[in-house]
Design a protein that fits this description.
7 strands; about 500 residues; elongated; 7-stranded mixed beta sheet; alpha/beta; 10 helices; about 5% strand
Amino acid sequence: ATATPQYHALIDTGALITGMNNQQVAEYLLDHGLEGIEGVVFLDEYDRKMVLVRASKRIVHIAECGIALENRFAFYDQVHTTGMDIKHVLNAHCALTLGKDMTLRDYAQGAFRMRGIGKGQTISVLVIPEVVNLIQREIGKATPKDKAPLSLSEQKDIHRGLCDICGWLVINSMRMERIQFNMLQIQNVANVWRKNAFVQLLDNHHKFSVLSKQRADEESEAKKERNRLRKEERERKKEERRARWAKLAQEEEEAAKAEEEEKKKAEEGKDGKKKENEPADGEEGKKDGEKKESGDEEKKEEEKKETDEEKKADEKKDEEKKEDGEEKKKEEEKPAKITDTEAQEMSHVLDMFKEPINFSLAESVPKPHSLEEIVEDKIDQNKDFISSDRDWGIIKDVQDVLQNLQKAADEVQEAAANESEDGEERKNKAFSEEAVLEQEQEQEQEQEQEQEVEIEKFVDLAYSRENEEPNPWPVRTLAKVPGNLPPQFYNA
């Protein structure tokens, strides 16, 4: 926020900014610097381009902010460093972060948020000390010992520093590709027995009830409640049908009565004249008509009762059939009895679709195993579910791929070892030559020293004063005869 020259964007490809959302990051940047910047562009939770305006502290859409490009600052979080396009000034300068698990693709995607890179827009890479150590360690393995990589902070050659960063990112990319390749081979092999296990699971799942006791009790209570509601619903429907039939019967009865009254009135109109002439006969006919009407009404009531009874009987039969069907269905849905062997087999089938997570810590560093050994171990564990030749063919293809890969890796290691041995031999040869040369020089020096010592001895002998000690002599020797000089005198 306070850098000089000023940045126009922060691209967090390394996911170094944590614990804050994008809006909080924008607020922090405005509060701690970015002089001359009127707003910060960021992506909200709906992936919309929003601007936090410094003057009003309001958040508006980028199309409505009215802030010039040179007065904006953009923040790209790690999620939006791919595919997001925000306009910048032609000479924009941005900061890009590096993370420990980044690959070259992530780096390139983040860098190309600057659409004008190489045409006026520039990027500065921000590297934390932990990542610097990772870069030095990985690049150091690929660099000769006599040309060890310098620390990024000590390098005056920017080009070399960027090359080291790109090399480290390529190494990370290869490592991620290798991990994905290993996972793909394991999944290809596991799919063979998982498919067979899934078929077996579909064929035998109806034999098992995975409900716990509490779940079973809850299911039982729910079934009782459903049965009670169904019974109440049936009773309600019965009452509705009875009321409907009673209403229909009443309407038929009223219609019949109205029809009889009309007929009666019509007959009374026709027989009006007869009644005057034959009153006795009219009274008798009237009585007979009343008897006939009462008989018809009784007959209709009996027919109605019979119809109601038949309908009730039919409804009862339908309900019994329905209940029998439901009971039969329940019996079919009940899990069949299974043996312990079948239960263990199905438990093993279910375990194939689980990915165990183990939080225990070993007492010692575990011995690493190659991918080929891991695949072989998984095949041995699940060989009961590898049945057809096609399944074994798929496994054989995967094993061949892994063997070829291991063979190529061994060849590379052998070549590297031979190169290392050759290098050691060259070093040993050069060292022995230097040792011989040093030894010859030492011998020459020793000979020169010996000669110097001999010369010094000769000089010492030439100028020796060993016999110059005083020899005392007695005085009485002077009395001897001349010609017979004492030893202390020399002849003239």
